[in-house]
Every structure is written in structure tokens, then in C-alpha cells.
Write the C-alpha cells for this entry.
Amino acid sequence: MAFSDDPLFEELIDAAVLDHAAAERLLREHPGLIHATNRLGETALHFLAIESYPEGVAFLARHGASVDVTDGHRTPLMDAAMIGASQVVRQLLVLGADPYVQTSEGETVWDCLAPKTAAEMRSILTEHGFEPKVRAA
């Protein structure tokens, strides 16, 4: 469940994963849907990043979804890194996601890592050129 009252939002999420032709048709008919959000402030791209669907993430990004949009707090890259979704993190970085985007608290993706997967996520981020900045306390 994508926590949306809009059945088209749900349909886009499903089609971005299962039926790209249907997703393209849906986006032609409802172009603003690519930027729509659910009750949590998540776009379809956020939702697919959190659910670990790298192909769906790539499809939406190729069709105009911003890889750096926030849900009011975090970007899809931050969400994916936080849960250890390595394929999605790699996909978002290849698609141009900016690892230096900051939350309203000044945190970057580096600060959002869960201890269990932090080493792997740090490795992926540094492989893609991310250099963490030390924040002043």
C-alpha cells in the first residue's frame, strides 16, 4: 500500500515495476502524476526506492521524476541508503542523485545510514565519488 487516496498513484507504482507500457500510457494521460505525493509526502520514486525496486526507480527517473526530491525530510537516496537497499542506492547514484543534498537538520545521506548496513552503503557512496564533509557541532 502506497498510502495514497489516488488510485492513479497506486496504478503508477504498480505499472512502473510490472508494465512499463501501461506506466507510459498513464503518464501521457496524467503527466503531473510523476510528481504526485502520497499522504506521507513520498513520490512514486520514493516509494519504489524504499521498497527496493531499482528498475522501477530508473523507469520513473527516465520519465521525469526528480531523484533529489524530498518527502519533506529525506531524498529517495537517503531512504534507500537508510534501509540498505544497495541496488537502489547504486541506481540512484548512476541516475545523478546528489549525495550532498541535506535535510532541514543539515544531514546528508552519510548521516542517514543504519549501523547494520553502514559499511556497505559507505563503500557504495565513496565508489561513486562521495566524500563526507565533517559538520561543525
